[in-house]
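Design request, tokens follow.
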């Protein structure tokens, strides 16, 4: 058995592969043998110390695998079941014990790789489209990082719901990927001013909702893309955290609304988790959402995976193979 350990927060060189032994699962737990591990930007936030965690720790919030043992009182899964989970740190490992109420059974039509690549990102897209803001047919929406993991699912699902989808990407190479994600308009933000392009694409009106995972570098300009009373959804900070020292900016730009949601608030019960996951797996199995796994790395190469993610060299989702 092997796992990644961070002894001190910092750069990708702080990700160390170690051997370990794992005891039997405790009451309410299941022991999982991982088959595929998801890579997410939140892993970087914990590794760098932007999000605090007590060291040493094993990063990673998402993985698929097979149940090998269950502890006392576990009834929702059994040995041999294929499962996936997210939101429980420690997935950068070959095996782990985990509370069984974190586990979602996998339908036959969803592979382990797709599940590990999509659960956290897909549940994020679900709450963004249905819970943080309920997207309506005809709503214009603007998505930053439209070729990324969450962005890919968000654009496809939003288009299926009847949204007018404008996506921004960071390079010419990613434009075709965003177009394949069913964006109506794609903007290369490394070359064009995205505010002007969003206004042009909406005949000057702006969009009803902005979905921004980039943070500091795009937040304030994102406000300028909104219609009066529009909603800025800041759900990530890949370029740094956002601050609003002057709330009056929201009034001056059209009585705007801002929200900073997190997945855990929408999956706090097992019923919420499984219901939202079912909605995601349904659209994957129906072909509404196609999960693009752009990269695969071995667990021993996790530092390379982090560097690629931070340097915006990845497309779609990335998985780690234990």
């Amino acid at each position: 058995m092997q796992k990644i350990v961070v002894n001190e927060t910092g750069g990708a060189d702080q990700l160390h592969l170690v051997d370990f032994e794992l005891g039997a699962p405790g009451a309410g737990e299941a022991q999982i043998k991982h088959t595929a591990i998801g890579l997410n930007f939140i892993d970087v936030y914990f590794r760098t110390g932007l999000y605090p965690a007590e060291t040493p720790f094993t990063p990673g919030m998402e993985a698929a695998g097979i149940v090998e043992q269950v502890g006392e009182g576990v009834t929702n899964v059994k040995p041999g079941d294929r499962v996936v989970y997210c939101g429980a740190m420690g997935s950068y490992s070959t095996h782990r014990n985990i509370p069984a109420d974190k586990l979602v059974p996998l339908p036959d039509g969803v592979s382990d790789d797709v599940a590990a690549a999509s659960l956290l990102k897909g549940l994020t897209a679900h709450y963004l489209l249905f819970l943080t803001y309920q997207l309506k047919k005809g709503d214009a929406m603007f998505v930053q990082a439209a070729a990324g993991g969450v962005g890919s699912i968000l654009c496809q699902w939003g288009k299926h719901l009847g949204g007018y989808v404008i996506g921004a990407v960071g390079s010419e190479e990613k434009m075709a990927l965003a177009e394949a994600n069913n964006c109506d308009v794609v903007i290369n933000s490394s070359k064009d001013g995205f505010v002007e392009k969003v206004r042009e694409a909406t005949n000057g009106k702006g969009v009803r909702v902005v979905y921004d995972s980039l943070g500091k570098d795009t937040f304030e300009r994102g406000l300028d893309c909104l219609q009066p009373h529009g909603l800025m959804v800041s759900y990530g900070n890949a370029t740094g955290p956002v601050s609003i020292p002057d709330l009056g900016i929201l009034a001056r730009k059209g009585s705007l609304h801002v929200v900073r949601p997190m997945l855990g608030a929408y999956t706090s019960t097992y019923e919420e988790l499984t219901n939202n996951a079912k909605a995601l797996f349904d659209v994957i199995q129906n072909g509404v959402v196609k999960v693009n796994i752009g990269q695969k790395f071995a667990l021993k190469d996790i530092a390379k995976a982090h560097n690629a993610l931070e340097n915006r060299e990845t497309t779609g989702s990335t998985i780690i193979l234990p």
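Comment from the thread starter after seeing the answer: thanks! The first strand starts at residue 2 and ends at 6.
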